[in-house]
Amino acid sequence: MVQATAMQAVVDRAALFDFLLGMGDNTLILGHRLSEWCGHAPALEEDIALANTALDLIGQTQLWLGLAGEVEGKGRSADDLAYLRDARDFRNLLLTERPNGDYGGTLMRQFLFDAWHYLALKGLRSSCEPRIAAIAEKASKEVAYHLERSRDLVIRLGDGTAESHARMQEALVDIWPYTGEMFVSAAHDLVLAAAGVAPEPESLKAEWHALAAETLRAATLEKPEDRYMHKGGKRGLHTEHLGYVLAEMQFLQRAYPGASW
Amino acid sequence: MATAIRPSIADVWHWLSQVPDPEIPVISVTDLGIVRNVDWDGETLVVTVTPTYSGCPATAVINLDIERRLKENGIESVRLERQLSPAWTTDWISAEGREKLESYGIAAPVDGTGAEGRLLKRIEGLEGGAALTVSCPRCGSARTDKVSQFGSTPCKASYRCRDCLEPFDYFKCI
Known about the structure:
Chain B: It comes from Rhizobium meliloti (strain 1021) (Ensifer meliloti). Chain B: InterPro entries: Fe-S_Maturation_MIP18 (IPR052339), FSCA_dom_sf (IPR034904), MIP18-like (IPR002744), PaaD-like (IPR011883), Zn_ribbon_PaaD (IPR056572). Chain B: It holds the Pfam family FeS_assembly_P. Chain B: Keywords: Plasmid. The complex is a heterodimer. Chain A has a single domain (12-221, 232-255), classed as Ferritin, core subunit, four-helix bundle (Ferritin, Up-down Bundle). In chain A, α2 (13-35) packs across α9 (187-195) and α6 runs antiparallel to α10 (205-218). Chain A has 12 helices and no strands. Chain A is mostly helical. Chain B is built from 5 helices and 7 strands. In chain B, β5 and β6 (156-161) form a beta hairpin. Chain B has 2 domains: 9-82, 2-Layer Sandwich (GMP Synthetase, Chain A, domain 3); 94-171, no CATH class. The chains are: A mainly alpha, B alpha/beta. The A-B interface holds A 45-46, 48-49, 52-53, 55-60, 62-63, 118, 130, 133-135, 137-142, 144-145, 147-149, 151-152, 214 and B 51, 53-57, 84-89, 113, 119-120, 122-123, 126, 128-129, 147-154, 158, 172, 174.
């Protein structure tokens, strides 16, 4: 605790808050997207698997946003941050708010995110901020299973029938321009990297590309060329899709403030 | 003022060993290894619990059950503290807990992760789940197939035995 308090003094509190919001918003928004499949997935096992992945992500959201509220020091809880902010204040990657598409599209998005998520958490396990390292240590093990599963399914569907192959290739082309943002530094990333709190996003790029390339090769899919990459999520500039996600997710707390059960 | 006699720490551990996991009631919270510490802070008993999975919905129920069991045994002031690090690992499930799981029909976790992190190494080595041999808890056969990585709860995977043909749950190592 002494260590944590000393750290707060050193690291820019606002930068730390933005970073924690980013981690928590990624897992919150993607977790919500996955929960949209509950009761609709193509097979019972898949339905259960996606709901369980969503559960892990929402659990991690509670840890990240809980810590964000603590760091901010204004008495906001994880629930307050999840339910009472507007789109402009969300810091998630645009990738996570992309609509689900077909099942292949959902799995492709998941794999590309899981690969980044795993590597990001791996770096955060050695964060000099002990509370961040503890969350990363916990979440890493859960995300290892997410990555193992999404990678396996991308390979099976990519290297599957002509129909599944075509759909996976289409999903890949569709989502690829949203992957570049994972490696772009926002102002707060540079502050935290210098302080040893979090790895610089750019530093994860080579390993991520190697993992993606290896998996896509095994899936017989063609990696799109890196052209224009969409970005802005980390600065609060989102696609129109986020507003619809929030309208559904936040409805209850907006309509009945403070409702609990 | 009369000072209440505080129960011994050993008694407290014994009572905790009678608190069942809400999802898998054959094993207790101490079999699972999620109770990390028990200590007195003045007249308050502090129980340190670590979550299994970040989003496990049983966590809140477990905390309530622990508090209720201790109050039933006359401890008036209980404080539950959450500890994230070191992160829970299935290596902490007791030998007795493993036996209880197997006889209940759930295959116990086979590869430890603990200090050396075999789960993470497996993922990074891209070996895939196929690299794992899970034996059937009913007939003991090693000829089993993974049906799905996630079973009825996040901590379990679904398997099928090729010899006795029975489906079964596998408690994943983490």
